[in-house]
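Protocol step 4 of 6: structure prediction from sequence.
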Amino acid sequence: MNLKKIQILKLVWITCFTLVILSVLESVQDVSQTHELGVFILVLLGLLSFPLGPFLLYLVTAFPTIDYQSSFGLEVFVICICCFFGGYFQWFIILPKFINKYWN
């Protein structure tokens, strides 16, 4: 793939990720919405980073030493970081190597 196209795709993907996070965090008005917004963030970011992002999130949250559900901010942070790194790694590191190896 052309290097310019890859850079544009990276910019669009990171922008979508950031817009999801910012729009959801700005819409939090009371504590009763936090669980529903956490699930909403998980679904949206999970779609952007599927399958590696949700899998990485599962691995991180499987450790009983991390009590990420004690605060909404920490929960959102864990979801965002796991989905971001999983999705970025899968879409912009693994997939280009796979394409270059098997389709060129």
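Step 5 (inspection) to follow. Helices lie at 3-26, 34-48, 52-61, 72-102.
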